[in-house]
Amino acid sequence: VFQSLVKGRMDMFKVLIIDDEPMIRKGLIKVVPWEKLDCCVCGEASDGVEGLEMITEYKPDILFADINMPEINGLDMIKEAKSIIPNCKFIILSGYREFTYMQEALRLGAFEYLLKPSNVEHICEVVKRAVMELKYQSDYQMEINKLRKNFEESIPILKEKLLYDVIYQININE
Q1: By C-alpha distance, which of 95, 91, 118 is closest to 27?
Q2: How many CB atoms lie within 10 A of CB 38?
Q3: 133 neighbors 154 (Cβ within 8 angstroms)
Q4: CA separation for the pair 74, 44 (Å, rounded)
Q5: Which of 55, 67, 78, 132 suits a disulfide with 94, CB 3.0-4.6 Å?
Q6: Which pTM was predicted?
Q7: Sign of CA dihedral 70, 75, 80, 84
Q8: How far apart are the C-alpha atoms of 110 and 77, rounded to whole Å?
């Protein structure tokens, strides 16, 4: 089902939802207006092991994860996922209010730590901010690539100019 949703939507950011509570997963999928946020849900998983498999397959841009899940907890999953999807925006959605969990999530590079239950407006605001950052990163990378290409194309011309200047002793300094 999700594969057909993802195909043909290259302009949208892919969202993966990993939570052991089916109601939370289904709620996020159905209640959040993903298309209005330039996103599409590429999949859902019920534990960290399945989540890592889907992360490897889909390479999501935004990932919602619970902390307390069977097999691999959300924080350990994020540690492993960082090498697979380093630019992903990890959003923790957890019932744990302890500061140590929040601190560890932020240390791992989580984009946001939301407490369950969270209202839809707050979730949408967080997704909007994540999308804004992802767009900025994409634009920045495109600009860097454009500058690199221009520089590489200029090297032969600069070499020719330098050789010309040396041969005709123009603007030579030691």
Answers
A1: 118
A2: 17
A3: no
A4: 14
A5: 67
A6: 0.78
A7: positive
A8: 12
Mean pLDDT, the chain, integer: 87
Q: Are 95 and 68 in contact (CB under 8 A)?
A: yes
CA angle 47, 51, 56 (to 5 degrees): 160
Residue 7's pLDDT is what? 45
At 56, list the tokens. 């490897």
pLDDT (tens digit per residue) in 102-152: 888 889 989 999 988 889 999 999 999 999 999 998 888 888 888 888 888
Return the exposure string of 39-65: e unless at least 16 CB atoms fall within 10 Å of the residue's CB, then b. Answer: bbbbbbbbbbebbbebbeebebbbbbb
Q: Which amino acid is present at 118?
A: S
Question: What is the maximal distance between C-alpha atoms in the chain?
Answer: 77
Residues 22, 46 contacting (CB under 8 angstroms):
yes
Strand partners, 105: none
Closest alpha carbon to 93 in 29, 147, 37: 29
Best CA proximity match to 15, nearest among 124, 102, 136, 109: 124
Distance CA 72, CA 172 (A): 65
Place of tokens 């140590």: 100
